[in-house]
Amino acid sequence: MRYIPSLMNKFKILLRIIDLINLWAGRLTALLMIPMIFIIMWEVIARYGFNSPTDWAFETSLFIFGGFVVLGGGYTLYTNGHVNMDVFFSRLSPRKRAIIDTVTSVFFFLFIFILLRESWDIAWDSFVSREHTWTDWGPPYYPIRMALPVGAFLLLLQGISKFIRDLAMVITGRPL
Q1: 134 backbone dihedrals φ, ψ, rounded to 5°
Q2: Cα(125)–Cα(148) distance, integer angstroms
Q3: pLDDT in tens, 124-133
């Protein structure tokens, strides 16, 4: 029994590390919006101001936005920004919410493991073949494909953190 406080402290350290990883990943990912804004502004000015649209702007902004979405999943879970049924969920006690989250985490982990495995296979194949897009500009496709397994891994880490916290709430009735 005397080892439990020591174990809880180790879990707290692990959870802080995971939270910091996703906090900084989210902050760095948010910076992707800056070049995307300028690229879209450039395209709007080129298209409507000079009647000369570019080949690269739409595709580049699409790549940046895709990276933004997949790399921000762990941060969104960290900030509790994912959608849930607040109408019912918010009326429950923290312990009952933790019980529901713990039970339904099976579906989360199943989804993330499949996403991680499949996205890694696709990203690796794209990297090995040096895949490029089919457009005239033809930029490499593998960097954006690599973002998906990285984002899935960040989401998995944060999911583990949430699961440990929920489990501690279920067992002890207090947040970890």
Answers
A1: -90, 5
A2: 13
A3: 999 999 999 8
